[in-house]
Design goal:
The protein has one domain. About 80% of the residues lie in helices and about 0% in strands. The chain contains 4 helices and no strands. The chain has helices at about 5-15, 20-35, 35-55, 65-85. The relative contact order is 0.13. It holds the Pfam family zf-HC2. This is Mycothiol system anti-sigma-R factor.
């Protein structure tokens, strides 16, 4: 199954947080192994996650905030990809 970049980037935080199943993780990794822009974006997201973790002292955001941020990130990635294609 071939994934497009917007689908991979929308789910990269799930992979970074260990919140996706093995099959999903494998599909994402397979795509990134063959897509330089996605692996670069993954690296940036990974660095951001480490920075946030270090600066926030390991505090966990409330579930409602995490859900809203996840929705906004997915929406912004979709909008960005749609804008680029237009």
């Amino acid at each position: 199954m071939e994934l497009d970049c917007s689908a991979v980037l929308a789910d990269v935080w799930l992979m970074l947080d260990g919140e996706c199943d093995d099959a999903t993780r494998e599909r994402l990794r397979h795509h990134m192994d063959h897509c330089s822009p996605c692996i670069e974006a993954y690296g940036l997201e990974e660095k951001l996650k480490r920075l946030l973790s270090r600066k926030c002292g390991g505090d966990r955001a409330p579930d409602s905030l995490r859900e809203r941020l996840t929705l906004e990130l997915r929406r912004s990635i979709t909008i960005t990809e749609t804008t680029r294609e237009a």
